[in-house]
TrEMBL record:
The keyword Electron transport does not apply. The keyword Methyltransferase does not apply. The lineage of its organism: Eukaryota, Metazoa, Chordata, Craniata, Vertebrata. Pfam families: F-box-like. GO terms for cellular component: cytoplasm. Keywords: Ubl conjugation pathway. This is F-box and WD repeat domain containing 12. It comes from the Eukaryota. Pathway: Protein modification; protein ubiquitination.
Amino acid sequence: MELQVPDVPLLKIFSFLDAFSLLQASQVNRGWNRVAENDQLWRSLCLKKWSLCNFSGCLGSQTWKRLFLQQTKLEHRMAAVKPEDFLFREYCLCFLPGILGPMAYLSGCGHTVGAQEKSVLCTVSSKHKLYAWDVQEGTMIWSSPVQQSSIMRLATLPQMHLAFTVDLEGTVKVWNCQDEDALATLTMPWTCFSLEICLTNDGPFLMVGNAEGDIYTLTVPELRGVSKVNAFKYSVDLLHCSPDKKWIFASGTHQNILPVVFLTESLLKPSEGKSPLSLSIPFSSCCRACWAPRRTSRITVMYRRGSCKKTGFTTFELMAKRMGDRTDMQGRLSRQIATFLLPLHMESPIWMGVGDGNTVVFESGPSLFLFTISGHLLQRFEDHQRTIGNLWVDPVHVLTTSTDDSLHLYMWDEEGRYPHLKSCCHLEHVGNDPANNIGVDSRYPCFL
């Protein structure tokens, strides 16, 4: 090639490439190969693809490129396995009856990178207890004492192996899921309806929304107050931190409430006498919302409207301008990216999640559905016999639990125009003896 592009602009150009294109570019000539080997390019690809994983201590002496290629090869090997390639055994004490409470990964995120970190799942039961489970072994490894009131919300911070709960009486607790007692306890003045953890450059913070429309920001793990903001006249039912930690989405399910997006920085470092920087989303009757994990300013909301409570999904993009040392929250909404309504005959979903920003997953009765954000049906799963009572979605997995105390695990597969789900593992109640009440359905490869 006659034209020699300087390294700096070439590095910028390469930063927009996916892994396959970057490997192709490295074969053009020696100059391009040298730039394409840049560790920062491959680090960005690792963090983008496995955003929930903790890479500390797992890189060692190898390069980010080598780590990316090793992990991708491992994923392809796992995706190619067949049920007969696995050994199956009954899981003891895996999921006790009453699994219909919240659930979240405590460590591993079910996705090991480098070091062999255990995948630990937290669940809340109707028995007013918090449990931690070793996913690979299928065993309960810790349980909290019985709480005085029902646990309403659960959040986890895998990077610090911490779980956060709030009960019906407004008591917030921090657990390390090892000791019997909570690390910290704080009783809020009102009932709390939402809980969100936000890990920033200044450390982790816990956001709590209550019945009076207030949002409290607390330090972790001490639960000391940082700020209090009155967002609505009604309860704060939804709190979601964007993947890049720049935004906090807040909303109530009341039909007169318009969701608000706060600049996270303004909640963590409040200015005396000034309201936090925020913008409103002109869309009422919101009942769920999810940020796209890899499109950090894209959010999809689920809503119900009309006398027959039609359920629909709408996707927005958020924008803000940086003006010197501050952010200008003219942060206008771009055009509405996509929207669609569910058929009237379909049972209204309660839970939802998003894939790459172009797909939405939700439950309806005993079925799990995957749609594009424009309303095209991609997949339907019927792995549960009874109604799905809870749904967990992250960039790696989808977990569902049903009223018959069964759990099903799916994994995202990004090959093709749209990502799709692969059914991986099914755990179900097989008897009345709580010491031996879960079996693995051998139709599916067990999650290891």
